[in-house]
Batch of 2 targets.
Target 1
Amino acid sequence: MKYTIACIIALFLFGKVSAQSKDEAALKAKINGIISKMTLEEKIAMLHGNALFSSAGVPRLSIPELTCDDGPLGVREEIKRFDWASANWTTDSATFLPNGSAIAATWNPLMANKYGVVIGEEANARKKIIMLAPAFNICRMPLCGRTYEYYSEDPYLNSQLAIQSVKGIQSQHVAACIKHFAANNQELNRDSVNTLVDERALREIYFPAFKAAVQQGNAYTVMSAYNKLNGYWCSENDFLLNKVLKNEWGFKGVVMSDWAGTHHTVAAANSGLDIEMGSSGPYDQWYFAKPLLAAVKAGQVSVKTIDDKVSRILWLMYHTSMSANHPKGSIATPEHAKAAYEIASESIVLLKNDNHLLPLKTSAIKSIAVIGDNATRTFALGGYGAGVKAKYEVTALEGIKSRFGKTANISFAQGYRANYMASKTDEQNRGYDKPDQNLIDEAVALAKTSDVAILCVGSNREYESEGHDRKTLELPFGEQALVNAVSAVNPNTIIVIMAGAPYDLGEIKKSNHTIVWSWFNGSEAGNALADVLKGVINPSGKLPFTFPVSLHDSPAFNLDTYPGEGLTADYKEGVLVGYRWYDTKKIEPQFPFGYGLSYTDFSISKLSTDKSSYKKDETIHAIFTIKNTGNKSGAEVVQLYVNDPVCSVLRPEKELKAFEKIFLKPGESKTVEMQVKVADLAFYDESKKGWNAETGDYILELGNSSRNIIHTTKIVVK
Ligand code: BGC
């Protein structure tokens, strides 16, 4: 019987696969037919921007322009064709979605998928074929200005989220453009730095999410990064684009350069770049315009190479704008708002709740002081990074008023002045870190007479910005002085931090009992936050990166490799990125990777495996039971790490290999099985130029953060 079922499934799958490959073969033939009708000039016109966010089509052959737009926070407002100024449309107000590290903090790939679907639907409404999202460079260095856009320091978590964001976007026949490939981990000198990364670190840390998004997510577009990788610009890096991406991973889609990230014609054309994009004209002078035509005529770039690029673009179009049943899309709908709310709700991380002040007991609270510039600030726009013209954005103060306003008197004090603009020089921004005593006095007066003080601090979209790295881990704008002053007069002070990257919370962690981490959390940020404070939502977010105690503890600073010397950043830490570094070097973090509390408690039973020893082609089935032992519904993210105690090379103390977010009602329990392929225990063996899962013992470690391992068990690989 089992055999018959297996045969039927195999036949069905084979039938499906062969029908798909037939379709693909027919499409290939169709594309070749179109290309045979095109002139060289028409082909070249498709390979470079003809405006800020498009490249030419071939109207004679009914091939439309290829349009694209930023991401990742949502579909960017329409700008003018040839400059960055607003086009002043009235129909481009969009949903502002939680930022990348917020999505990562959900530890829930379903949320990444939801995010993708919204992006895809809104892109269709705006007639964009490619969305320049998701962005998921590894958070190597806590100060990187784009950490808020990216996901995580861990390649596995990164991969699971990248796959689902891409699938979500592309489910709407819109191409995802995964970026920035590769090793673009700092903003300082991003367009001139040469990152030196050994192949093992590339394969184990910096490549996995790109590989997964290509092979499991089927991403249609990849953006090459600004920087050089091991001596070659990413936009003309044969190893990166031809050897790894296209040949090894089988990427069928289009590689586009980051804006003005192309440096040569022949090298880029022959090394795998398909489309040159940029920021200003004259467009016909770009590397992939007239110079490319000349290079083809001179025999430096073959017509076959050009045809391959055109073929990839047409392939992308037939899967997106020229696909059958292309969805019309929709923008800023209530369903999209609901998705933004759900993602935001799952992203908020409860860092400390020592006095059980949260969730707030509404009946006992008659007055709430909401304090801090971030309580009234919006985050959809700011700095140099792409933003969103949000249809609306609920601030923290608005959210708190709507959730508590009926039963308590809510008042507001600004508390600090956020005097910092990404566009200003250091000199002009001087003094941004100084407290404002008048604002502090006002806040203290309010806090003294209120039952609860909710302090909304952190950073903002000016302080964390594309094109800049932060200079310090400290909270900006003199916030610590405000926190100290308010906490001194109100014993019920809740610290809410809104930011997208790690900060030094040392003093707050030591002196404050209640800390909540929120993000640049999208259109519904304020509602989600207030619902967490009220207990309508039980927090379930977990940190997607480590918070170090000091900058010096972090690998790039400890090894003095940031920002690099003479425009070379040597990633000397190799694979020891994020918790891999802190755990292996036994450095205590401020808050560990994977950490986050709940309003309920969970107990996790012993971890068992289906067998005690495995062959290299087998899969480990790790089984445990989890129970909600508290009296509130909630979710726990259970994380499975693996430690390889004896190995021929240095391995990190632990590596995340599986995780699951499990939702449980009070008293409910669930038996969970996590699967890990033995092949995924391998390290990249430079000596063999391949993956190597050595025989011997491995320890499976199950926990609810990277530093809270609850059960371990040993398995053997034979
Ligand atoms: C960024 C990309 C972005 C592009 C277009 C570049 O500066 O690095 O992420 O997609 O601009 O706005």
Target 2
Amino acid sequence: MTSTVERGRFISVEGIEGVGKSSNIEVLVTHIENAGYEVLTTREPGGTPLAEDIRQLLMHRGDEPISGVAELLLMFAARSLNVNNNIRPALQAGKWVICDRFTDSSRAYQSGGRGLPMDMVNQLADWVHADLWPDLTILLDAPVEVGMARAGNRSEPDRIEREEHEFFARVRESYLQQAVAEPDRFVVLDTTRPLAAVQADVVALAQHLIEDNQH
Ligand code: Z5A
């Protein structure tokens, strides 16, 4: 008799910079682990040694311009590595996967922000991860000024962080449109509230998915 391992759940966390992805992923992971599940936490771009190298190219390169298309292709090259070497094997082994950004980031930044056609992003998504999409996407939302002020308290901005306010406003708008288009997958949380209140919502969402998994 063969025993089949139940596929784990896949959660992505999205939002413009400084909205609190790291701060909320921490409590999300702790809650799911405390419920008895093994969790793989990963991030994009990155997550595998080669994908992390691509991240370095994208964030801290020199003066050579990177076109929007080159940026998009590098994001998806890194995503292909992360999906094949991390995410799919973990889900198949029954682990839960928490991903700090996924393809919705490419839709928001490279299409919404840079202006590339959404269809281009969606075709690459089909190539790279086909029917694999998060079971739940938590969109942490705040006005650009709030995210920028929080992020501004940290270290030197990277290449994408040096973009102007209007760029991030387009990114945020694209995220909000995605959430409206896919209400079954997205949950939008207002992160202008105190961190503890946002974290309580994140834990409640995780608990809902855990209970759903047990039925
Ligand atoms: N990118 C892309 O263009 N296309 C793609 O396909 C992908 C990515 C996958 C790297 O992302 C860049 O890659 C990103 C998009 C692009 N560029 N930008 N911008 P990243 O996720 O690594 O970098 P980031 O967006 O700058 O995120 P971050 O640095 O990890 O920030 P965060 O996790 O969202 O925030 P945090 O560190 O948890 O919180 C920031 C501060 O705010 C911290 O002091 C917290 O204590 C505080 N905080 C958080 N929440 C609250 C609340 N509610 N109240 C008060 N203070 C708070």
